[in-house]
Amino acid sequence: MIKILTLGIETSCDETAAAVLRGGREILSNVISTQIPVHQKFGGVVPEIASRKHIVNIMPVIDEAITKAGVELSQISQIAVTYGPGLVGALLVGVSAAKTLAYALKVPLIAVNHMEGHIFANFLSAPELEPPFLALVVSGGHSALILQKDYNNFELLGQTRDDAAGEAFDKIARVMDLPYPGGPQIDKLAKLGNPDAIDFPRAKVSNFDFSFSGLKSAVLNYLNSAKMKGEEINNADVAASFQKAVVDALVDKTIAAAEKFQLKKIVLAGGVAANSSLEGTLRKNCDAQGLEFYFPSKILCTDNAAMIACRGYYQSLEKKFADSTLNAVPNLTF
Ligand code: KG4
Ligand code: ZN
Fold it and tell me: What are the backbone dihedrals phi and psi of residue 152, each rounded to the nearest 5 degrees, phi first?
């Protein structure tokens, strides 16, 4: 049986990525060209530089994905591209490339929501996984609890009211003089510290929403007042205590939502899913509650195009195609 070949394209932030999938879940290639070293000296992503780098990288990355997959461009059946949320100038590079290729190859174009793509990374890591499930999506731009009823049916149960979890990690890392992106740095440093050393506050937010800006201010106040008093700061303890506060909030709400909506499977997604404490704590809690726990391999946690191709494939099964009027939607929601 000839299986559909989907080319995925992702340029929403600081990774230029392209991937080829055979059928819905078989990765033939997954190429990621990261711009992290370029943005590191500015302490965060500079949108204008990101767009320019995407323009330079996009065609070589697509070429490499096609070559590594061992296929010809003419064999591609359809093209899935991230159209939001993200940086508008960055998104436009991927969207323009995808529209041009789809037109030239005369193949369908599929518009993919980046956050949905993150959830679908789990289908690539766990071929047996099927909806319904509860997804905790935590990235640099979003923190949300999603009820995935079917492949093309999502319900937003709650989300952050201010900072995203990854954003909080990055901001705290920055004031601690750790390089961008701060999440992996805090994760590493926290392993050397005591998570119970400092009792940072947990926000009391109703329903299944999150809030991390109060926690961020509490950590900043702690660091500033210690500096002013000339007290020595144990950075590892600060990192571990901050991380525990974030993880506690995310895990508590996830377990409560699973109980309320009677869901037996929990899926972790997004860049912050790579956090070892979040993964470990959520897994432990799921085990204790008799829930199945899924999370993507590290390379599929952070931005990549295989997850976009996977999401696109399932949209194509319901003939959810885009056309040449497709535009970037930087503030796209679920
Ligand atoms: O999903 P992603 O690659 O990009 C967005 O869609 O935002 O997520 C990037 C975010 C960054 O904030 C980064 O600091 C965070 O994920 N991150 C982590 C870890 N690895 C990446 N946060 C905590 N611990 C990690 N190990
Ligand atoms: Zn992402």
Answer: -120, 25
